[in-house]
Design a protein that fits this description.
With about 180 residues, the chain is of the alpha/beta class. It has helices spanning about 5-30, 75-90, 105, 115-120, 130-140, 145-160, 165-175; strands spanning about 30-40, 45-55, 60-70, 95-100, 125-130. It has seven helices and five strands, in the order αβββαβααβααα. InterPro entries: RNaseH-like_sf.
């Protein structure tokens, strides 16, 4: 099978089949959504929506949709989510959790995405991205160190980065100690 045929089968047959199965699951299960806004190489803004739910005692993380957005405000993102769930006929009351990065548009307290979702479902669990929080903490902490400490850590990394011999010797040293 050549590239064009494989792409067509993947996008029109396999994706449609798996998305339809996912939609059926989400109509009948409580689930969380993980969302993130991104700008692609053509400078189009998109919203990625991933669902997480339990089925047959297994946690399932499934890609639901990639939606192009024009308005990246909280109300614009919320409207896109509402439209998407209406299109798939998935009740928004089934959403029990939201995971997103910690930007103000997503996690603000007044009229931001998490606040708008809480108006529909006051018991929704909200979780900011722990990686994003850790990165912010690490960045703030690194600013307190002298510049020489950061340079030393970069030099150590660069010393081992491209040498399998040095990496092997480092592992032997770690095992010894």
């Amino acid at each position: 099978m050549k590239r064009k045929k494989a792409t067509q089968i993947s996008t029109t047959v396999l994706f449609t089949y798996s998305q339809n199965n996912l939609i059926l699951d989400l109509k009948h299960h409580y689930f969380s959504i993980i969302i993130d806004e991104t700008t692609d190489v053509s400078t189009e803004k998109c919203l990625v929506v991933v669902s997480r739910y339990v089925k047959n005692n297994q946690i399932c993380d499934r890609f639901l949709d990639l939606v192009q957005i024009c308005d990246s405000t909280a109300s614009g993102i919320f409207n896109v989510l509402q439209t998407m769930f209406q299109k798939f006929d998935i009740p928004m009351s089934n959403i029990v959790g939201l995971g997103a990065d910690n930007c103000a548009v997503m996690m603000g307290q007044l009229n931001e995405v998490q606040a708008l979702l809480k108006k529909n479902n006051p018991f929704i669990a909200i979780l900011g991205c722990p990686c994003h929080s850790m990165h912010l903490c690490d960045s703030a902490a690194a600013e307190k160190f002298p510049r020489s400490v950061e340079q030393l850590s970069r030099d150590i990394y660069n010393y081992f980065q491209n040498s399998s011999k040095r990496l092997h010797e480092l592992k032997e040293c770690q095992i010894f100690y």
